[in-house]
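MODEL INPUT / OUTPUT PAIR
PAIR INDEX: 1
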Amino acid sequence: MSKDNKRRDSKGRILRTGEQQRQDGSYLYTYKGKDGKNHYVYSRKLEPTDKLPAGARDCKSLREKEKEILKSLNEEVAYHGGDVTVLGLTQRYVSVKSNNVRHNTLAGYKTVLNLLEKEAFGSLRIDKVKQSDTKLWLQKLQTEDKKSFSAIASIRGVLRPAFRMAVVDDLIRKNPFDWELKEVIYNDSKSGAVISQRQERLFLDFVKNDKHYCQYYEGMYILFKTGMRVSEFCGLTLSDLDMKERKIHIDKQLQRTRDGKYIIERPKTKNGERDLPMTEGVYQCFKELIHKRKKIKVESMIDGISGFLIFDKNNMPCLALHWEHYFKDALGKYNRTYKEELPPITPYTCRHTYCTNRVRDGVSPKTMQYLMGHSDIRTTLQYYTHYEYEDVEKEIRELEEKMKKAR
């Protein structure tokens, strides 16, 4: 026993409660199981970095095993012991869902969990949470913490199904998050920006004729004239372009995780896989991109896919973030050059503008749903069409003229 009265192993390391070193040098951990009885686990090493004795088979360290045991006990006791907190419930929901979601969805889960760890709401027992509690908490996030409507909608988008799971598991009778968000939280989000056809033409003409930004003209033109998601555009490879039939095949997105890993994701919706026709202008831009394509001896292979169209200075395929910067920088130079400034223009603006302009041209909603890759036509109608009085008036006048001619 050491002078500080703390138990230590043969290497002088302090042993935790339940741990002990046996005479043969191996380690033992004792714990109480759900049945109230003592249980025991053994290992030849205390920490994962310990060297194994000669001839011993590799195994998990005692503390790795302890961590797994404690996690299992905490989950079971918390979930079945009638003392489930909002945070605990959400952690369980995330653990159930996390094996089959995209990386950006996982990042959203982590954001909600981090918030609940800091908020008093996260420590409330779920059987004590009332509907008024959920409303007041989300209102507090908006009014005091200044979170946007979209951020609050994302938070509720995790908590609502988590509480629904608790209802299914018979832990609570009603879901306190079952109410319409817009009835309680002020929607301060703005619909996607749409620019006029004149503004689009001014911007593209400027980019085309600028000595520096002309290198991005083809990509920007394609985004404006196809309505593709920018991540879909970044994911295009040579094999996705049928230049003979003038057709673009979309079946993936190129993205990068928070830790910098490049990954290939499936389309955002079940209707995301689709073929888009090339207009003459789009065809010429793809033809130019293929002609200018950087020649790299060993091209990047991402999830088994190569042949991407546009590369950055490190010879990696360009990402959505690159294009966001290209648009921002080009727009900044335009607005510094001309007295008449243009509004914000992003790859997302291209998508909104494309959809709105095609609807104004008379393209049917079902065709637009297909072109945009939406699984629900309500998304096409509600979020990607921006009709104004002039559009409505024009359509009514044209209908009136047709009726006069038919008489």
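PAIR INDEX: 2
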Amino acid sequence: MALTREEVLNVAKLARLKFQPDEIEKFQIELNDILGYIDMLNEVKTEEVTAMTQVNSQVNNLREDIVKESLTVEKALSNAPDSGDGAIIVPKVVG
């Protein structure tokens, strides 16, 4: 499948891109090369290949969920420049 000049212009319009006339020819050639590589991939026989869900031999490497002591609200707010009602108070940044 080869793209025509009009199809390249339509893709550029959809992407809101503007090109010079010589750039359109260059991109037409490059896009046709990319589509050629995609056609080559379509020739690969994949009927007997199982779908891959994990890249590491389908093993989920999860760590144990260990409950640990966390900071208290008072300790977490101890270094805050200003706090109140259990929260850090910061200057308003939205106008």
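PAIR 2 NOTE: The mean pLDDT is 88.
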